[in-house]
Amino acid sequence: MSGVLVLDRARTRAALDPHQVMDAVAQALIAVSRGEASAPPRVAARAPGGLLGVMPGYVPGLGLAAKLVSVFADPAQAGRSSHRGIVALFDPEDGRPLALLDAEALTETRTAAAATHSALALAAPRPGRIAVIGAGAQARAQLSLLALLDPTTPVAVAGRDPRRVRDAAALHPAAEPAPSAEAAVRDARVVFCCTGAVRPVIRRDWLAPGAHVSSVGGSHGPEVDADTVRDALLFAEWPGAHTAAPPAGAHELQDLPEGKAVTLLGAVLSGTHPGRREETGPTLFKSTGHAALDVAAAHVAHAVAVREGWGTTVDL
């Protein structure tokens, strides 16, 4: 195929086969942990109403891509932000642009995949329900993926808007709205935090023994409280999650006490790190997003679209 394949939002979303994205994201996380991926810390240009972030990356076997994403306040929904942008996929051998994809659908799917991998790898091996905090686009993506992979485990969904919470819970056959974040979190084995919060949405004393927390929000402030960070074994996608300042690094992982380690999730997935060491302590996966995950999802979407004959080819 010559030219650049352009996929709109609907076709990008349809091309992100969840099982293939899960496999590709695991491959990308392992490559990051081994130092095989090339992805500089993201940078952002700030405008009066928000920021424009840039995330280029290369992952052997998956490809070369760059994401441009804007994070701006949503005028239609007070207190919420929108994430819009594009992902450009290139041929890693000769640099030809191959595809332009919708960044919103791609980011939601790869983020949910990474969060799910963290839960599968780090949650204590005991039965228990799941909590999803948030009812926006990322929470809906997480619920949709859980519905596909684990449709029978009960899920409690909590958020600020009861109507949005009900709509989000309807995406999972075993999900129900919870009256509050605390009610959702207490006794949950896994907690997915998927919010645009600027201050913590969960507290350490809500967590059940051995609970795993996967936090993928908090672009503008901490989503997880300091006591949880203090007590938990910490995991992230890349070293800069705690060594780089926000927006590249995580708000929660700044200025950690000496000796407080952050382990790369890819090291657990590859078997080079044991992950959870005992059943009663909490674990926390703090996601900042990483270009290698965008490469993984773009690789899947492009391959599926080419196979299915989707999209429009343009000369760029």
Automatic annotation (TrEMBL):
**Can you list the GO cellular component terms from the UniProt entry?**
cytoplasm
- Give the matching InterPro entries: NAD(P)-bd_dom_sf (IPR036291), ODC_Mu_crystall (IPR003462), ODC_N (IPR023401)
Q: Cross-referenced Pfam families, in alphabetical order? A: OCD_Mu_crystall
Please report the organism this UniProt entry assigns to the protein.
Streptomyces liliiviolaceus
This protein is called Ornithine cyclodeaminase family protein
Gene3D superfamilies, per the entry: NAD(P)-binding Rossmann-like Domain, ornithine cyclodeaminase, domain 1
